[in-house]
Automatic annotation (TrEMBL), chain A:
One of its GO terms (molecular function) is sigma factor antagonist activity. This is Ferric-dicitrate binding protein FerR, regulates iron transport through sigma-19. It comes from Chitinophaga eiseniae. Keywords: Membrane, Transmembrane, Transmembrane helix. PANTHER family: PERIPLASMIC SIGNAL SENSOR AND SIGMA FACTOR ACTIVATOR FECR-RELATED, PROTEIN FECR.
From TrEMBL, chain B:
Residues 137-186 form the RNA polymerase sigma factor 70 region 4 type domain. Belongs to the sigma-70 factor family. ECF subfamily. The lineage of its organism: Bacteria, Pseudomonadati, Bacteroidota, Chitinophagia, Chitinophagales. Residues 35-103 form the RNA polymerase sigma-70 region domain. GO terms for molecular function: DNA binding; sigma factor activity. Keywords: Sigma factor, Transcription, Transcription regulation. This is RNA polymerase sigma factor, sigma-70 family. SUPFAM superfamilies: Sigma2 domain of RNA polymerase sigma factors, Sigma3 and sigma4 domains of RNA polymerase sigma factors. GO terms for biological process: DNA-templated transcription initiation. It comes from Chitinophaga eiseniae.
């Protein structure tokens, strides 16, 4: 998937870009992307400022209904509906419409009193979803300002209902959860009995393989395992591996970076085996790695490299790092000694 | 080639019974009232820019909402952007009602969707006459845009509809929407640097 190269954009190009426009027009839902991008490209500040001025300068004559006109129009709408036949919930037509009128008047009063309230309340009951294809990674803000980076080939659902925020993850995601003023719980559900409960913190959940792996980078989380009545408190650097098949789990300490760095676009390799690389290529690009000489799987390297979301480039990089021969046949990659 | 990670906000609303639209389809009167309250200002604003006829706009908004309630069982549950749906519908209604009106035959010369361009705060420091002169030039340049082009600009920047949605409402190609907006931006851009430059020289 191609991404635009914004670093060569002029003010005019920015002003024409739909994504950029969205950021300027709706700063309330402002995009994590643009703020971060500006931080990384301070040299483009003038172009961006000029583009913003271009967009913000456009204004249209205002036409507004007074609140009396709005009420009047609403009454006309409801009045015109009196001829409608009774609906199942209503005992008699007349009664219902009278009630309806009072209810509408009351409701309107409430609505007008706090128009913004509805606007704010609306997302509370919405369910949102996002997904990524192979070789694709996305970062976005949830309505509560928590940030999620979704790794390749993953799906996420988000729902917020007053008391708590909930997401369902199938695949891998890194969460940076915002602590809300009302101490709203944030719960991450996997489809394999593992549920993570937090208030505000940073952690990674991966359910792609035979295990569900949860790694905590910062803060504190509580991990619940369904069916085992187990609840674990995790400290930063803790990792829990849950075996989907037999329900066994282990908890230990690791360097969290190695597990979460993908969300910043880097592959941190610390005693990184060819088997680890194979898992990565399988998860992110859907490649099947075949290594006839299983001894090679234990071959390890250390270091770090940027993740390029292009399977061919990534294979060439890994080929160099591991000093082996990679042969691609469709979605299969055969690896041999050099 | 992609050399970094793609970062874009693109959460989609899942059509579900808890969504406002879903509740309307189920006959929830509160949802109906909420949709009215949320969208009536935008609809009125659009209508007035479309034809400057308060009575006509009012009547059509009334019909639109009545039909919305009466035909709710036949509406598509797939509507994800209510404002887009309502504006498309209001536009069709206004067009139909105007086609019966003889004056509308001259619609190409009709005003509508005019927009102003105001430069940011700092430019207020510029000599008033220069600013007035500048504004006249800009308005003349913008006057070259057709009504349709202005409407596309209005839908994108005032109603915040996507390029695709603007194209859908106006039955035009996404490319034409893009070109229209490109043209307007070019006009604005040509007029923007001048006052800014003056400002710096003046200091």
């Amino acid at each position: 998937m191609a991404r635009k190269d914004y670093s060569s954009y002029t003010a005019r190009d920015f002003a024409l870009d739909e994504d950029f426009q969205q950021w300027v027009l709706q700063p309330a839902t402002r995009n994590v992307f643009w703020e971060r991008w500006l931080e990384q490209h301070p040299e483009k500040e003038n172009d961006v400022r000029e583009a913003r001025q271009l967009l913000q300068g456009i204004s249209f004559t205002s036409f507004q209904l007074s609140s009396e006109q709005k009420d009047g129009l609403w009454e006309a709408i409801c009045g015109g509906l009196e001829g409608e036949g009774p609906t199942p919930q209503e005992p008699t037509r007349t009664n219902w419409w009278q009630l309806w009128k009072y209810a509408a008047a009351l409701l309107l009063g409430m609505l007008i009193a706090g128009g913004w309230y509805w606007w704010k309340a609306e997302p509370k009951n919405t369910i949102l979803s996002s997904h990524t294809r192979l070789g694709e990674v996305k970062t976005f803000l949830l309505p509560d300002s928590s940030e999620v980076t979704l790794n390749a080939n993953s799906r996420l659902l988000y729902a917020s209902a007053g008391k708590q925020r909930e997401v369902w993850i199938d695949g891998e995601a890194f969460f940076h959860v915002k602590h809300t003023a009302s101490h709203q719980k944030f719960i991450v559900h996997t489809y394999d009995n593992v549920h993570v409960e937090v208030l505000g913190t940073q952690f990674n959940v991966n359910s792609t393989g035979k295990e569900v792996v949860v790694v905590l980078q910062q803060g504190k989380i509580q991990l619940n395992i369904e069916g085992r009545n187990t609840s674990l408190a995790l400290q930063p650097g803790d990792i829990v591996r849950y075996n989907k098949q037999d329900g066994d789990f282990t908890k230990s300490s690791v360097n969290a970076d190695q597990y979460v760095s993908w969300h910043t676009g880097r592959l941190v390799m610390e005693d990184y085996s060819l088997a680890d690389a194979a898992t990565f290529m399988q998860q992110v690009f859907g490649k099947t790695i075949i290594v006839p000489d299983t001894q090679l799987l234990k071959y390890k390297v250390s270091g770090s490299m940027p993740i390029i979301y292009n399977a061919d480039t990534m294979l060439v990089q890994l080929e160099k790092v591991f000093r082996m021969k990679f042969n691609q046949k469709g979605d299969e990659v055969w690896i041999q000694k050099k | 080639m992609n050399t970094g990670k793609a970062v874009r906000a693109d959460l989609k609303v899942v059509p579900s019974h808890s969504s406002l639209w879903g509740r309307l389809l189920e006959g929830d009167r509160h949802a109906f009232a909420e949709i009215y309250e949320t969208h009536v200002d935008h609809l009125y604003h659009y209508g007035m820019h479309f034809c400057r006829d308060h009575e006509r706009v009012n009547d059509n908004i009334q019909d639109l909402f009545q039909d919305l309630w009466l035909t709710r069982e036949h509406l598509s549950p797939q509507v994800q952007h209510i404002r887009y749906y309502l504006i498309s519908s209001l536009r069709r209604r206004l067009l139909r009602s105007l086609q019966r009106d003889r004056r509308w035959q001259y619609r190409d010369s009709w005003e509508g969707f005019e927009f102003e361009f105001t430069t940011p705060q700092e430019n207020k420091l510029i000599l008033e006459e220069t600013a007035a002169e500048q504004k006249k030039l800009l308005q003349a340049a913008l006057g070259n845009l057709t009504r349709r082009q202005r409407e596309a600009i209005y839908l994108r920047f005032y109603q915040n509809l996507s390029y695709n949605e603007v194209a859908g409402i106006m039955s035009m190609q996404v490319d034409s929407v893009y070109n229209t907006i490109s043209k307007a931006i070019a006009i604005l851009k040509k007029n923007l640097p001048f006052p800014l430059l003056l400002l710096f020289l003046g200091r």
